[in-house]
Amino acid sequence: MAVTHDAHVEHKQSWITRYIFSQDHKIIGIQYLFTSLFMALVGGFLAMLIRMQLGFPMAKFYWAQWLFPGGFANNQIKPDFYLAVVTMHGTIMIFFVLTTALSGGFGNFLIPLQIGARDMAFPFLNMLSYWLYPPAIVILLTSFFVTGGAPGGGWTAYPPLSALPNAAPGSGTGQTLWLISLAILIIAFLFGSLNYITTILQLRTRGMSLMRMPLTIWGLFVTAVLMLLSFPVLFAAAIMLLFDRSAGTSFFVPSGLVIGNQLVQHSGGNPLLWQHLFWFLGHPEVYVLILPPMGIVSEIMSTHARKPIFGYPFMVASIVAIAFLSFLVWGHHMYTSGMHPLVGTAFMTTTLAIAVPSAVKTFNWLATLWRAKIRFTTAMLFAVGFVSLFVTGGLTGIFLGSPPIDIYFQDTFFVVAHFHFVMASASLFGVFGGTYHWFPKMFGRFMDERLGRWHFWLTFVGIYATFFPMHFAGIAGMMRRIYSTQLYEHLQGLAAINAFVSVAAFALGVGQLIFVYNLFLSLWRGRRAGPNPWGSNTLEWQTDSPPPHGNFGEHLPEVHRWPYDYSVPGASEDFIPQTVSASRAPLPIHGGSSEEDPPRT
Amino acid sequence: MPRWNFTTMADPITPPDPRRTARQLSLVILLMIVVGGVAMTLAARSRWWLPPVASTQGIEIDRLFYTTLVVTGIAFVLVHLVLALFVWMGGRRQTAAYWHDNRTLELTYTLTPAAILLTLVSMGAVVWGRIHAPPPENALVVEVRAEQFGWFFRYPGADGTFGRVEPALINARRNPLGLDPADPAGQDDIVARGGDLHLVVNRPVHVRLRSKDVLHSFFVPQFRVKQDAVPGVTIPVVFTPTRAGNFEIACAELCGVGHYIMRGKITVESQAAFDAWLAGQQPAAP
Fold it and tell me: Helix, strand, or coil here: A308?
């Protein structure tokens, strides 16, 4: 774990207040990252179970039978357990891994350091935010062990299936626990995002104007705004669904339903209301998962290409544009839901509009790589990989954004392939790149670069091998969330492709163990890193590795320039940190960084 | 546990030979992603591709799909070629350029995708509007009612009117749709129980889609038709089958444990064959 420098500790802390119930943003960030890593292993393992069934439906898994006596029968996974696994894989990966690792982990660790603050605006709230996360995990995982098992309605939990306990085995206690767990986690996210917004707006150091903020901060800031505006909607929807389930209300359940020959005693609700509320969060949520990686990748790319990020104002503008539009596109998840066709046309327009700022960002990254002097660290490899994954996944989004094409592709594996590229894998590449890049800052040691490169190659090739062929399963019409493809005539030719995808997925899963091994090994045995090993400009690299309690010495740093002055002509080195004043190094020609900016207090 | 010897490792700050890594990465992008991606897409067309289309709207949807495939395919190849090239070049340069703004370039690559996307939006809107046009006069009206885990089909009978249904009257064996015996319009309704959905080739169909319990989705891959069945509402689905033969309905919205076996069958036949089949059916009269 991180070693704090005693010289800067203002008051004496016990081991527990320093590392367990810590209010230090760095420790909280690292806690978030390690807890997310644990959940990633759980979620990844569930993915392997899914691929076992889809790739090798006839095979017998004796070890799995032994491990899950209730979920397997005759050494094969049971349909209800399969759906529970699918549901939990999605829920865990989206909410409990990517959101927590990016916003909770990197958000906490980087925000005060990169804006030159000593800590978050509300350290206690920050601690509370983290400590709501483990209980949410416990409640979520408990659902595997209750009667009926974990929920099997998908991560979207569409009612009436999720509202009526006798509609499916997992719709009993398991679904209730799922809703409670999610509600608790949402409170954690809201505490976090309030904190981030306040911190970024109020605690920037002298000279750190908004247009001098690193793009990581822009990504995290706009993400926090998205979370603050969209998560309460899901929170409300979850409470409403809980009421429908246990208090006799009918928000989402219409009258006249018959389940198992029993007339359901509900009336007046509308199942589509849940879909609107869910996707009003659900769509901004995918940008919650991609905006921070976009910032992280920009940061890594600029540093290791030794070149300023191209088009900084356009980068900021496109982050803001994507965030704004993300609130207006939720209906593209509902083209075939039965809402009015005219609404579909409106959502198609906004959906394809959001592709424009996404394209701008991609081209800006390409322009950043042009005439760069690239240093191929593991972090940089992941950053380049991110661009490729984002492009591949983004382009298939153009098919799905068009409602006539989506009629065919909705709820097929084409969608699964699409979001695993653009949202899941790309976002994960942001997490990996960020980890390799900031590990020296977090722990004062490098991660091993040789293992890192192996990890990159296996992951990059593994992701393409796993998810690219999935497009073709989708084009052939394979539906999502089906336990078996054997019944349908149009799916008969897909056995080979599914087996291939499964083998690739297993390799991809095993490849991640290299990362885990590297991570823990490097904690103890990694090469020592100095304060600024990569030659970076941002403020976190202008203090010790790891930074002391309070982050910076006696005086907070003062900012004199934008963060991307790499390879400035005439400068003695190929980087000029933000703290270097104009008298000591040439000022760039860049507009947003003149020395005359009004100082902030 | 093997001991990793960090002291002999190359300095992580300057990894060994950037040219070699650059070459490897651009080769992987070029061979695996560009060549592999394109080759796999071309190869997939013979085995893993859209099932042969069998409806008028399907033809339009497929055309839109191919247009989008060409546009995105070109973008996919170009962006990855540029990425591979810049990575390859970036490994060989001794200094980086200080270059971070070019308004003309940026506006070009903002407006070009915008124009292309606007074109695709317009094309999509036209097709979408046509698919959702009101059903024509001569359309064959049939009710498709989804439930866990199967499909029921009801034809209005000689009077052309569906009888009233009442959920409280639903009985899985005797009255699966809950037809109201008091409604004379229901006396001649034809309920195809467990049988095929019979449709007429080249005659528009107006499906009135309902659900008994939870969400389902009426998906016929060859027709390029998919519509969720939402309990509490009746949703119109209009399409025209263009090929006689047998097809399958797949449920495409997760509806519970038996979701994967919720299959229905469709027979598309000539008007004469359809009439003969319909004449042989017993009215549902509960």
Answer: coil
pLDDT tens-digit series, residues A97-128:
999 999 999 999 999 999 999 999 999 999 99
Would the CB atoms of B232 and A271 count as touching at under 8 Å? yes
The proportion of chain A whose per-residue pLDDT surpasses 90, expressed as a percent, equals 91
For B15, the closest of A308, A376, A405 (CB atoms) is A376
Instruction: Give the model's pLDDT for residue A102.
Output: 97
Domain of residue A296, residue span: 25-255+266-338+350-583+585-593
- Does residue A3 fall inside a structural domain? no
Q: What is the pLDDT of residues A358-402, one digit of tens each?
A: 999 999 999 999 999 999 999 999 999 999 999 999 999 999 999
Residue of chain A with shortest Cα separation from B69: A399
In a domain, A411, yes or no: yes
Q: How many residues does chain A have?
A: 601
In-domain check, residue A4: no
Pairing of strands A72-73, A76-77: antiparallel
| pLDDT attached to residue A346 | 95
What count of Cα atoms within 13 Å lies in the side-chain half-sphere of residue B54?
20
Give me the residue from B32, B101, B224 closest to A461, CB to CB.
Answer: B32
- Which pLDDT tens digit goes with each residue over A414-427? 999 999 999 999 99
User: Is the pLDDT reported for residue A7 higher than 50?
Assistant: no
Contact state of A398 with B40 under an 8 Å Cβ cutoff: no
Tell me, what's the pLDDT at B174?
Answer: 86
What is the spatial distance between Cα A348 and Cα A400, in angstroms, rounded to a whole number?
A: 9
Is it the case that residue A347 has pLDDT exceeding 50? yes
Average pLDDT over residues B218-224: 98
Chain A residue whose CA is closest to B130: A404
CB contact under 8 A, A475 and B50: yes
Report how many domains make up chain A: 1
C-beta separation of A450 from A549 below 8 A:
no
**Do the Cβ atoms of A271 and B231 come within 8 Å?**
yes
B228/A contact by beta carbon, under 8 A? yes
Q: How confident is the model at residue A593 (pLDDT cuts 50, 70, 90)?
A: very low
Nearest to B98 among A308, A353, A526 (CB): A308
pLDDT of residue A592: 43
DSSP code at position A76: E
The reply to whether residue B99 touches residue A263, judged by beta carbons under 8 angstroms, is no
A16: in domain: no
Position A594 scores a pLDDT of 40
- Whichever domain contains A88, its CATH number is 1.20.210.10
How far apart are the CA of A561 and the nearest CA of chain B, in angstroms?
15
Per the CB < 8 Å rule, is A336 touching B226?
A: yes
Please report, for residues A363, A495, A586, B245, the alpha-carbon distance to residue A486 in angstroms, rounded to integers and kept in the order given: 43, 9, 68, 21
Mean pLDDT computed over every residue of chain A: 93
Identify all chain B residues contacting A464, using CB atoms and an 8 Å cutoff: 32-33, 36
Q: Whole-angstrom Cα distance, residue B19 to residue B10?
A: 16
Per-residue pLDDT, A60: 93
